[in-house]
Design brief:
about 220 residues; 5-stranded antiparallel sheet
Length: about 220
């Protein structure tokens, strides 16, 4: 321990004659660093140094990182925070050798969602997520819709299938932010056909249909 530093002397006695020799011993303090990685981008990077009584700590790391805390933290860590974090501890003017720990922050995957709507009621809707290597997919949507396919299809749509569908992907234990796409299901128009029959030969046949706002006939 550092408190064991100092001068140590030995005396030897031979036939009534003595001699003394001394040596100076320096015992430097020691701390062992560690961290909580691997973690995902956006999580908190936590650095740890073993406790040393009366010690003052000095950390350095990537991007000019410094700290005098024993156990500093970096919130919302990104892959730019990857690398070696090194610490020394000083006790009574004695500084330990530098010790390092390597931190790994995994990037969050990015996904994009689209669909082929608007479609008419009864027609299929295909949801599509961008391809992400080694990813698993998780879709959610209206009416309790779920799917683990990259590009699921609702084969026979209903008006209640309209709404927002969102997908997340997970790669190496890290989940993306949700990507969403809005599905629009259009109702089929409803009209009633009329005619003025029965008619006699030579009379004028009149055909009609009930009005549908915006419809073409």
């Amino acid at each position: 321990q550092p408190e064991n530093s100092g001068r140590y002397c030995v005396t030897v006695n031979l036939n009534g004659c003595t001699a003394q020799s001394c040596t100076d011993v320096i015992v430097r303090p020691k701390t062992v660093p560690s961290n909580n990685t691997p973690i995902c981008e956006g999580e908190t990077l936590k650095l740890f140094a073993t406790a040393v009584a009366g010690g003052s700590f000095a950390w350095t790391g990537p991007g000019g990182f410094t700290s005098t805390l024993q156990n500093p933290e970096i919130p919302n860590a990104t892959p730019a925070n990857n690398g070696d974090y090194c610490v020394t501890v000083t006790v009574a003017g004695l500084t330990s050798p530098q010790a390092c720990t390597n931190a790994v922050i995994k990037p969050r995957p990015v996904v994009v969602a689209i669909n082929n709507s608007p479609v008419c009621e009864g027609d299929p809707v295909t949801l599509s997520a961008s391809s992400v290597a080694r990813a698993t997919y998780s879709w959610t949507g209206p009416g309790g819709f779920t799917s683990t396919l990259q590009s699921p299809t609702i084969t026979t749509t209903r008006l209640t299938d309209s709404g927002r569908y969102c997908v997340t992907v997970i790669v190496d234990g890290c989940a993306s932010n949700a990507a969403c796409t809005d599905v629009v299901i259009r109702p089929h128009p409803v009209t009633t056909a009329t005619q003025n029959g029965p008619l006699c030969a030579g009379e004028t046949l009149l055909l009609g249909a009930s009005s549908v706002t915006g419809g073409t006939y």
